[in-house]
Amino acid sequence: MNEVELFAKSLKDFFTKPILKLTLYPFFITLFVMYATFFVVAHFGLDDFHNHIVQVQQQQQMIQNGEVVHSEITHETYFGKDIIDFLLQYSITSWIVGFLVYTLGTIFVMVFALFITLIVVGFLTPFILKIIQKKHYPTLEFRGYGTIFNTFWILVKSFLMMLLLLIILIPLYFIPVLNIFIINIPFYYFFYKLLNFDITSTIMTKEEEAVIKVKKGNTFQIKTIILYLVSMIPFLVLFSTVFYVVYLGHGYLSELEKLRQTKAALKEE
Q1: Do the strands 53-64 and 67-79 form a parallel or antiparallel pair, or are they unpaired?
Q2: pLDDT tens digits for range 99-139
Q3: Which DSSP symbol is given to 90?
């Protein structure tokens, strides 16, 4: 099965009634969590901001004939909203504030949405893959190694690794244009680890996963990079994550079927 056929089959399965029903869960749960988080952060953030104080010291000097004839030091205190007004007086600070608010804010919202949907879809993955198995791979037995413990461990480990990468890459965030790509590396790592683990741990053994990753590891990595980039399109992630499981699930199930057929043929010889 080539990539075009695989994508077409995945798209067709995604628009079936059972899969579309499952798509509603991450959509509504993610919307609810983001809605609630927005109001909580906005409430506490604004309260803290209004109580915030910034003191600025400015010195002005009058020079005549190369000599300082008058020097004046002024102190100004800014509260709450006045801080923003002060920052926006200058072009450089105005640009920095705009960049932080719009660029990083947009990235954070999209990544946060992706983070929530990945966790929700993680619970739905076995049901999605079971639907695909019954329809396309009825003779293929699931021999998953996933448990509550190792799933939780992978989630925590991937999250901590993501935080570590975020910290290590801080110096590169200040390089224009490049920073947009660099800041996505930690989030992509989390996306790749969680999504692939959810699928492989449901359908195959660790040994089978290791064999497939040696043969097709780069292929699945390229696929997940493309899927992650698609996730950066605003609001698409609310619907697309279930499709990712369908698409990657077909890829892994197809490779698993070939692997087991090869093993069975070798045993017969």
Answers
A1: antiparallel
A2: 655 566 666 767 777 788 888 888 899 999 999 999 999 99
A3: S
